[in-house]
């Protein structure tokens, strides 16, 4: 068994023991974040983040950026509020609190989707991005991961370039709405991470998308750590 696998096994055993307790099962996201963070800490977050990141950079970054402990619980509480705001402002968005961050997956009605071979943002997508930009301004101590995706039409190299253009288009639009560019990190996945069936026209349309991950920036982490020292 290699070192990483040993660490994952030990950390997961600790988390499994904790999450089996009634107190943790009945806890809210903030409380769970604090308990799990104390048990596994950044070791588990970093290892899982690195491995998940190979397949999904947004989710990998969310999991890999774990602070853990009570400070992680403080961050989790702030992320709870932002996640709830996104859910209320953009019905249909699948908003998942993961560790100390947020993973946002949109459906075809609430998200950012593109026509075949296109990277321009349509009017409906702009309306949703305007709402998101407003929320991001309310929570300036978070960073945003923007991931571009395509369907399986066309060759791999073309799709990778197209997904980069789509991620860039969303990032540029958020910047135009007042979001500081330093908060944004862009990844291009091409056709490598389909969420829907590329064998159907409907599935391909849904796969032409951009998804978002939201994580604490260094200021939020420092503030959380300072808060628990007081």
Automatic annotation (TrEMBL):
Keywords: Cell outer membrane, Membrane, Signal. It comes from the Bacteria. SUPFAM superfamilies: OmpA-like. It is found in: Cell outer membrane. It comes from Aquimarina aggregata. InterPro entries: Bact_OuterMem_StrucFunc, Gly-zipper, OMP_bac, OmpA-like, OmpA-like_sf. GO terms for cellular component: cell outer membrane. This is OmpA-like domain-containing protein. Residues 101-218 form the OmpA-like domain. Residues 1-26 form the signal peptide.
């Amino acid at each position: 068994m290699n070192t990483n696998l040993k660490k994952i096994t030990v950390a997961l055993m600790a988390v499994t023991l904790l999450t089996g307790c009634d107190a943790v099962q009945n806890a809210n996201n903030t409380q769970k974040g604090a308990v799990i963070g104390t048990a596994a800490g950044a070791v588990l977050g970093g290892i899982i983040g690195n491995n998940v990141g190979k397949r999904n950079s947004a989710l990998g970054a969310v999991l890999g950026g774990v602070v853990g402990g009570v400070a992680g619980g403080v961050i989790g509480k702030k992320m709870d509020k932002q996640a709830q705001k996104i859910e209320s402002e953009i019905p249909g968005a699948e908003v998942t609190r993961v560790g100390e961050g947020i993973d946002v997956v949109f459906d075809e009605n609430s998200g950012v989707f593109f026509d075949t071979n296109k990277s321009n943002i349509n009017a409906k997508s702009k309306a949703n991005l305007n709402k998101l930009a407003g929320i991001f301004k309310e929570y300036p101590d978070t960073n945003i991961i923007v991931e571009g995706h395509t369907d399986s039409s066309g060759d791999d190299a073309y799709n990778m370039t197209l997904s980069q253009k789509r991620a860039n288009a969303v990032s540029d639009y958020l910047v135009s709405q007042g979001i500081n560019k330093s908060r944004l990190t862009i990844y291009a996945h091409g056709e490598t991470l389909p969420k829907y069936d590329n064998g159907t026209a409907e599935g391909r349309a849904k796969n032409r998308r951009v998804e978002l991950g939201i994580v604490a920036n260094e200021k939020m982490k420092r503030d959380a750590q300072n808060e628990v020292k007081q």
